[in-house]
Write a structure and sequence with these properties.
Strand content: 25-35%
Order of helices and strands: HEEHEEEEHHEEE
Largest sheet: 5 strands, mixed
Distance between the termini: 42 Å
CATH superfamily: Aromatic compound dioxygenase
Helix content: 10-25%
Number of strands: 9
Radius of gyration: 19 Å
Number of helices: 4
CATH class: Mainly Beta
Structural class: alpha+beta
Number of domains: 1
Shape: globular
CATH architecture: Sandwich
């Protein structure tokens, strides 16, 4: 009887004491130091036309280890691209600042596979004054594929699943005015300091 009561209390309070596992970090020396200060990467600044390629929206949340949204975090991305896009003027990096619900968003072109076996991916760095920075990678693949990609091959199966970017609307035919939507949440190590 006591065990049932304890189990019931644990079930009822589990949402009150949520815990989020910090995101796997993958650091790189190849990360550019100064990404552009825009989250609109799918077209050149001031241009009405989009770059050739599949447009996507990448959105997600930045949370602390207690699953609390982090406002004011700087999210920077660097993505794999094909030479043709770079020749058009595509800049494969950008910056977004999280809102009061910890959300960030980028409008960009779907990363591509490179000829040397590098998977379609984005390198992401998150910084905030109250936390140690996080640098990781998210992969735009559907499942556990075989690859010589250095980042991918260094991961366990559970880490690979954690770092796959989730497509929110890939399971249906899109209307002409819709774009692919992806989601990738990042958990920072530590707890947000509340101010009174």
């Amino acid at each position: 009887m006591i065990l049932r009561i304890l189990a019931l209390l644990l079930f009822i309070t589990s949402d009150l004491y949520a815990f989020c596992k910090p995101t796997k970090q993958l650091w790189s020396l190849d990360t550019p130091e100064d990404p552009q200060n825009s989250s609109e990467l799918s077209r050149a600044r001031g241009s009405p036309s989009f770059f050739n390629g599949t447009r996507i929206t990448l959105r997600g949340g930045i949370l602390d280890e207690m699953c609390v949204p982090i406002e004011g975090a700087t999210v920077q991305i660097w993505q794999t691209t094909i030479t043709d896009l770079e020749d058009q003027g595509f800049v494969p990096n950008g910056t977004s600042i999280t809102d009061n619900k910890g959300r960030y968003v980028f409008d960009t072109i779907l990363p591509s596979t490179r000829a040397n076996g590098i998977l379609p991916k984005m390198r992401i760095k998150v910084s905030h004054k109250d936390f140690f920075p996080v640098e990781t990678v998210t992969f735009f693949v559907m499942n556990d594929i075989k690859s010589d990609d250095e980042d991918w091959s260094s991961l366990s199966l559970s880490e690979k699943r954690e770092l796959i970017c989730k497509c929110l609307n890939c399971d249906r035919v899109l209307r002409a005015d819709e774009i692919l939507e992806y989601r990738f949440d990042i958990i920072m190590d530590g707890r947000l300091k509340f101010r009174s």
